[in-house]
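Q: Given only this backbone (143 positions), what sequence would you predict?
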């Protein structure tokens, strides 16, 4: 059972991270379209963002958390390892990042987001740092 849950967990992680990388990139383009007054592009990005967040990103996050919890139930000894505590802290931060993406989604949909495309270019890099740290922690188990 454990290998099946782990495989599904990894698929969910890949899917969630794909969305975590792509949604803020859409925000870059949305902010640029907003600044240029391109209403047709703004409408297009609003639909894409909503579908990505609700249809792919959120279900993937739920699957990551649920399947990860399932892995811990099957192997509770992992909870005594420091690297896992660090990894779980990063996951909590990513869940917060996910919800912050949802806040920006609502702001863009209501035409209230005033953040610049430069802000979203930097914002888009944060999950990359988390992914690198999580992978190194999980593979190397340094502590």
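A: Predicted residues:
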């Amino acid at each position: 059972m454990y290998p099946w849950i782990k495989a599904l967990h990894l698929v969910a992680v890949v899917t969630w991270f794909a969305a975590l990388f792509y949604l803020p990139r859409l925000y870059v383009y949305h902010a640029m379209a907003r600044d240029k007054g391109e209403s047709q592009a703004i409408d297009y990005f609003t639909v894409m963002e909503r579908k990505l967040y609700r249809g792919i990103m959120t279900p993937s996050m739920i699957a990551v958390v649920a399947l990860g919890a399932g892995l811990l139930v099957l192997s509770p000894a992992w909870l005594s390892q420091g690297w896992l505590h660090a990894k779980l802290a990063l996951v909590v931060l990513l869940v917060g990042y996910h919800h912050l993406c949802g806040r920006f989604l609502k702001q863009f949909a209501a035409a209230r987001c005033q953040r610049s495309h430069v802000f979203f270019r930097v914002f888009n890099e944060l999950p990359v740092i988390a992914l690198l740290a999580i992978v190194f922690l999980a593979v190397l188990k340094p502590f």
